[in-house]
Design brief:
This protein is an alpha/beta fold. It folds into two domains: 34-92; 101-250, Nucleotidyltransferase, domain 5 (2-Layer Sandwich). It has helices at 2-5, 10-24, 34-51, 57-66, 73-82, 95-101, 149-161, 180-188, 205-217, 226-243, and strands spanning 106-118, 121-132, 138-144, 169-172, 192-195, 269-272, 277-280. The strands form two sheets. A five-stranded mixed beta sheet has the order 3-2-1-4-5, sandwiched between helices. Strands 6-7 form a two-stranded antiparallel sheet. The radius of gyration is 32 Å and the shape is elongated.
């Protein structure tokens, strides 16, 4: 103690003693990870900017405040710049946002081909249809092995009097079958044909998705034997598509009618085309 007393004072020893006691009774709390919070904010900023191309930094700052995040305008600007998103008004409107803003007046149209066995051998049938982007309802306009000008004139007349007449815009690809004469007749009926770019199937994604669905779920799983069998298959699939098939674009709901909410009772199967297409619902 004599040696220690020559180095430190009693007050120093007492201070060290108090510090040791305080350290012994101090429990360290883990602070939340700031990096995780910043990553969530970063994703939210990009999402807001993409969904709302007219929102500036101040507007986004207020929207973030509504969900409990206080972020500076300069921080928002740096986040958008890092993701390659320009400021207003140079930020483009997303194609999905544009389509949803015009839901109810836009329909997609397209052709798909099917190989049908006939008495003449294997024949390629061309089927043209329209799909309403809002309701996902599909209307078959005709099928033929010869999609000539006379057939397309009939398609034009069908379009003018079909349920799709409420649609003002018809999205079509660059197929030569959509001739200027047909476009003029549709324009007289109040329907404007919007041509997509070459080799751009995503510009008419809803129609392309229907083509893939009908082929993968039905046409690729059987052999059409003649014109009558082929048209029966198309009619059966359309009935299944509208009344018995759940659609992800409609929150996994049915197009026509609603599924029964009963939780008890037997669950029979309603089969079409010998069991290729099935629907399960509880008996009423």
């Amino acid at each position: 103690m004599r040696e220690v007393a020559s180095i430190v004072t009693p007050d120093t020893l007492l201070r060290w003693h108090r510090q040791l006691i305080a350290r012994n009774w101090t429990f360290q709390t883990r602070r939340p990870r700031r990096r995780h919070v910043l990553a969530d904010i970063d994703r939210l900023v990009v999402r807001m900017a993409t969904d709302n191309p007219t929102w500036g930094y101040t507007r986004m700052q207020g929207a973030l405040k509504n969900v409990g995040h206080r972020v500076g305008r300069s921080t928002i600007a740096r986040m958008l710049k890092r993701h390659g998103l320009p400021p207003v008004p140079r930020r483009p409107t997303a194609w999905r946002t544009f389509l949803r803003a015009h839901w109810g007046v836009i329909a997609g149209a397209d052709f798909f081909t099917t190989e049908v066995w006939t008495w003449r051998g294997l024949v390629t049938y061309y089927t043209v249809f329209t799909i309403d982007l809002a309701s996902r309802c599909v209307h078959m306009l005709g099928s033929t092995p010869n999609p000539n000008e006379a057939f397309m004139r009939q398609v034009g007349r069908t379009l003018r009097f079909a349920d799709t007449r409420a649609c003002r815009f018809l999205i079509c690809d660059r197929d030569a079958k959509w001739s200027p004469a047909l476009q003029a007749r549709l324009a007289d009926a109040g329907q404007q044909v919007v041509r997509t770019r070459y080799q751009a199937p995503n510009a008419n994604a809803h129609a392309e998705h229907f083509v893939r669905s009908i082929k993968e779920e039905c046409l690729n799983r059987l052999v059409p034997l003649g014109d009558r069998h082929f048209r029966l298959v198309i009619a059966e699939y359309l009935e299944h598509y509208h009344r018995e098939r759940n659609h992800q674009g409609l929150d996994n709901e049915l197009i026509a009618g609603a599924a029964a909410m009963r939780t008890i009772g037997p669950v029979p199967r309603r089969a079409r085309l010998g069991g290729l297409l099935n629907y399960y619902a509880r008996a009423a």
